[in-house]
Every structure is written in C-alpha cells, then in structure tokens.
Amino acid sequence: MLSMLEAKRFITASETESALVGTQIAATLQSGAVVSLRGPLGSGKSVIARAIARALGITEPIVSPTFTLIQEYQGTLPLYHMDLYRLQGIDEFEGIGAEELLDSDAIVLIEWSEIIDAILPKHTLFVSLEITGANQRIITVEGGLP
User: Fold this and answer.
1) Residue 45: its H or E element
2) Which listed residue, of 13, 25, 68, 118, carries a Cα 20 to 30 Å from 88's Cα?
3) Superfamily of domain 31-137
C-alpha cells in the first residue's frame, strides 16, 4: 500500500497526463489496497481507474461499472472496480455484499466512495480530482497509511 506522510498534488493538462498519475499510483499499490476516486462527473475518475488497471496488466476493456456496480478483473493482482454513484448509502452497499471486498487481498478502486465514508478502511488511499479547465485537472493523492 502507498505510505504517505503528506498529500501529493499533480496538475495535469490532458487525459494522457492524468493517466500517467494513475500509472504512478498503481506502482505503489500492494495486495489489499483500497483506492477512493473522488471528483465531479467528467473529472477523470475512470481515466485513473483504467490507468491503474493497465499498470496491473489487465488488458480487457475497463468500463465504469455504473449499472453493474462492481467489475472484477484479473491482472498481476486481482482488481475490483466499484462505481457507487447509483447507491443511496451504506445499507445498500452492505446489501450487495460489497463490504467484504474492502478487506480482501485484491486492489479495490471505488468511484463515488463518499457514500460509504464511514466504513472505508483507515488505510484507504484518497485520489481527489478537481476540474480547473477544459482539460486541466488538479489531482490530490493522500492517505494510504497502514
């Protein structure tokens, strides 16, 4: 898991640059990592998720699981990609049995994790994306301490 003493901030000017941040994040992840991807619609959460998946050796198409809620992939480490946009709260999250995945040996990427803040593990790595221009993003990476 990524161990950080302070937040790291990246300013990107394209989707390609944002994907490079995702690749850098992936290089730090270990079995059991939980990554919270936060930001408004269109900020690039799925770009970061795809880059992390590619860096983990996953070659199949990575799509945001908005309607399926959870996609599972196998790369150098197993990956669960969750999109909680459509959920109403922790009860729904627990109702689909997803809480057990937070304690798995897989890498867990969660888009819209704000909905389950109260049950995120203490070692969660938070990746926050802010739109500052047509293609410009500020990406802040913090947390991840075991």
Assistant:
1) helix 45-55
2) 25
3) P-loop containing nucleotide triphosphate hydrolases (3.40.50.300)
